Amino acid sequence: MEEIWKVTDIDEKYEVSNLGRVCHRLIKGPNGEVRYRMMNTAKTGNYKILRIRNKDDKYIAYPVQVQVLKAFGEYDPNKRIVHKDGNNSNNAIDNLLQVTSKEVAETLKKQNKMHHSKLLIERCDIETREVLETYVYYSDAARFILEHSDYEQNQKNMIRVINNIRYTVTRAKRLPVKYGYYWRSRSRED
Asked: Does residue 126 share a domain with residue 56?
């Protein structure tokens, strides 16, 4: 794919390419010679950001994927940006997809990026240790607990149950019992 450059909406001195790279256009010399300097992008979490100092000498962070979509696609601030290949550093326009919040979970499940997808979570009987049910995602195990308990089914309780099960499965030093069941995990390869 040929690299195409467009001016960002941040400032006319900055350009972004369809491959997700950023450069700074400098005007040097008495004859107005224009030079370009590739910008180093920082990372916050897994995402690349462009840090630019404003007139007040404070740095402002601009997500690179947002700048690419604004320059080459149609950016909708009400939607989330997902990287199709799962690599959050790959900000090429062909790799960016805008989805609603409801579609994010489905996209992440397709990429196997939700809640330790390398493990299977097993809900077992406390006394016999017999496997009652196996879950691919912590969220599926949490959904079972919320459906069969007195907890109100909301996002806050869902996150709390997911974290409790994850802690019980991965870090419990003594008996990994929570919500009336014995919990354990095993690798998908087993």
From this structure: no
